[in-house]
Amino acid sequence: MRISKTYYILLLFCLIGFLSFGQNRAIKSADEKQSFTIRGSVSEKGTHKPYKNVEILVNGGKYVTTSFDGSFNIQAKIGDELIIKHPDFETIYYTVKSNERISIEVVNAVESRYKSRSQGDVKRFNQMIDSADAYLKKDAEKSIKFIGDALDVNVNTIQSAKAHELLGDIYAYWKQHDLAISAYKISLQNTETASAKLKLAKAYLNNGNVETSIETYKELDESTLSNYEKTLWYEGIGDAYLTMKRYDEAISSYEDGLQVAQNHLIAPKVTDLNSKIAEVYSEQGDTSKAKNYFTNSLSLAKQENKKRAVEEQVKVAEFNSENAEYESEIVLRKLAIEGIKDIEVDSIISNESPITSQKQNYKIGNAYLLSNDLTNAIPYLEKSREEAGERGDLDVKLDATRKLSEVNARLGNTEKTIAYNDEYKDVVDELYAKKIQEISQAARFSRNIAEQQNRITSLESDRALSKSTYELTQERNKSQQLIIYSLIGGLILLLITGFLMFKYIKQQRLANNLLALKSLRSQMNPHFIFNALNSVNTFIATNDERTANKYLSDFSQLMRAVLENSEEDFIPLKKEIELLNLYTKLEHFRFQDKFDYSIDVDDTIDVEEFQIPPMLLQPYIENAVWHGLRYKTEKGHLNINIQPKSKDEITIIISDDGIGRARSKALKTDHQKKQNSKGMNNIKKRVAILNEMYKDKVDVTIEDFQELEDAGTKVIVTLKKD
């Protein structure tokens, strides 16, 4: 029955594809003949004056005009004919032979208002810009270095604007959005272009400045934009409204952009906007309309290229997953895997990409698991785990191994469950080592980027200073007041440069703190995990299957909650109390002959209003049980008490009447002392970083609980409200 359903679904997609192809026959398939972006420029022969507003047409129907610096970008294929038209010169016809930059020189042009410069300087500048563009997605440091080399040439304001716009593109691709904003602003200060303005608005959006992004988009005059730029303009405004959850306005903007794209045959944007409209309807809960637009985007993406088709298949599969349509999700992900195989013949897909085959196999296995088809889930999860291991994708390998452990536990395969749990432990250790390495690499990347940016800032300052010096020389006979004003201007420029550097360093410090927090959160001590699994093994060995299942269910629930909260700096206190309750319940289950426990929360405290770092309290409870109560002769007691301290502060007191810190220390081995010290240092570092970022939000003190032989321990955590 399942095979029959799959067959019909595949047949349905084929029919939809043929129908869509008939409706969009003007859009040619990219698979038939590879298209690419041609970069070129139009200038006057001899003077090299750039020509703006020159019409560039392709025999296939594409159309653009040159910008202020005479440059243009247009999609074409080898063999296409470009038609270059302008009232000031005779029409030129150029046949595309390769994807190299095209330089069109014209004669009988109007006198240039720009000074002619060395052709060697122009050639070198273009070479450096082309090199920077070539390395943009491969090597950020090298790409930025080429920008610096380009600015090191005797450049004019138009070239400086072009270089800084490309610099902004580099920073935007590598997600350095604050630096991208600065670069685009400098570009616009040199020469105002719609392209840089659109990119600045998008950079503001990516940086979280949504209101500023919308204001920047609205500053543009729609009548001055090319058809492609109009599409980007509508799309960008739609993205901003979607971020603000203003769904009706987002749909309206996307539909306007879709209309422009359809009227002017801008195929990629027709696909993108259909997909984005579907996303909005999906967020609104209008599944029917979302499906209609996703059907359009799927068929349109298939007509573009393999990668775009796979991306859309994965996107729609996620939509199906959210709506519990697991069978449709599985079909799409299997199609995506076939497409990925074709893509990987000519290119490499990075592990960060959402369209890797190991991610798709994991999602298929998870879909089968959610459909309660455990038998079919296992092969895909194992395939995902194997591919992730081969490609070094430890995040996916960790998830796949965890899921395999859960599936085998549900099937009663105890040996495999234990084996996968052991492997899970090894992957956790390996992933921790990788995270440490990534922090080091990120720090080195930041330093190298800072060095390259300092060079560009210096070159820009030198260029501005050289220009000021030239103007001072030319205006030597002017009054002393003008000279003083020029010097003040230079000083202000240096102050602005210093301010930008200070802002950059501050941003890098924040980024480093976030990386450090992520690393520290990933260092969860696996001691409890291993002991918990040993307890399950003991229950199974004694044929206490019901107890083992109950314990494993609670344990899985705790681990799932911990992993879900692992990316957050703070979670609601209510969630943390639930985690503590579950964790303490598990520990009590294992050591119920050693202690009882209680968790008391004052009724006046609104646990939804307070935020706390996830798993901050768990290590203190673990210490209380393992190093205090476990060694106590009589049965002890663990109490977690949460009470108000002031209007905006609460205290969380974790107290036990165990043997106390001094006696516990005497009983520990060197290894235990080292592990305990490492765990406490981890918490201290987390608290220190969080207090630096959030202004002393958390305070922790530790003291003896009572003046008896069993002194016990009392941990007092003070938490401030946001």
From TrEMBL:
Record keywords, A-Z: Coiled coil, Kinase, Membrane, TPR repeat, Transferase, Transmembrane, Transmembrane helix
Transmembrane portions of the chain: 482-502
Pfam families reported in the protein's UniProt record: His_kinase, TPR_8
Single GO MF descriptor: kinase activity
TPR repeats: 231-264
Domain Signal transduction histidine kinase internal region: residue ranges: 517-595
InterPro entries: Bact_2-comp_sensor_kinase, CarboxyPept-like_regulatory, HATPase_C_sf, Sig_transdc_His_kin_internal, TPR-like_helical_dom_sf, TPR_rpt
Domain of life: Bacteria
Coiled coil: 300-329
SMART domains: TPR (SM00028)
Protein name, entry field: Histidine kinase
Species in which this protein is naturally found: Winogradskyella marina
